[in-house]
Amino acid sequence: MPSRRMLESMPPEVLDLIASFVSGDDIAQLCHAVRYFKYISMDMHDFARRLQIRTSPRPADLWPRMRMRPFLDLIFAPPILRALGTYSRKALRCRLTTQSPCLTWTTFSAKPLVLKLTICIGYLECCNSDPAALKMTTKWLLKLRIHELEFMSFFSISTQMLGMLHFVPALGSMHLKSLEDCSGVAFSECKSLKKLVLVELFHGEESPEELVQQLLDIVKENRIQQLELYLPRRWQGFLRSDLKDIVAAVFLKHGWLEQVKCTDRIMMQVCRMRV
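The structure corresponding to this sequence follows.
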């Protein structure tokens, strides 16, 4: 086992990676033993203090997987949102993951980059009904470097939130519900966006060809190179396999090639062909 002096002589990136593998039961001991890791215990203490709940969360509740369920009822209050944002940003370097029915964060340590942020149904409902929560969330999105952003909702996403997504730094992949949501995003200004996922393209009474054409019109003048679509089991009398053939033919006609390597029968992936 390396000595304290050997640990403290290592580069910060290596130390942060080591911390990401330490369990919640042992993280406090590591923080007290090695001065460098003091910031972790301090950040956990500050976040727990801001919650102002009778029973403070244990270190295992906050590290390395943050369990938000015990204080889920408080998470929508703006001060708690602010505290969660601060704690998450500081813990990005150690791959902090937060999980709840409302919000999921997965991060990478070597760079301040969120690999994937999933905003779920309950959280979006709160943003739609609470202007303070919406304002705080849009501020978060502007500050966090997010590679993949996913919205999971049966409802429409706030136009205010959709309208600022092109400002999200390093955004490479986006999951949206429908074409209606796409209309609120300035895709031409999304400088790093390469992939778009739609889970409800096939909806309504328009033909598959018409819906695909609308999608192609949206991505025509931007940097998106890959599209991923959910294929319903049956839609407008078409079985999933028949619908896939129809859609693939329309995409191919416009220079998009189906990725045959995709083994998921529910999802269909197409890539823009290089000219």
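Residues 18 and 194 are 32 Å apart (CA to CA).
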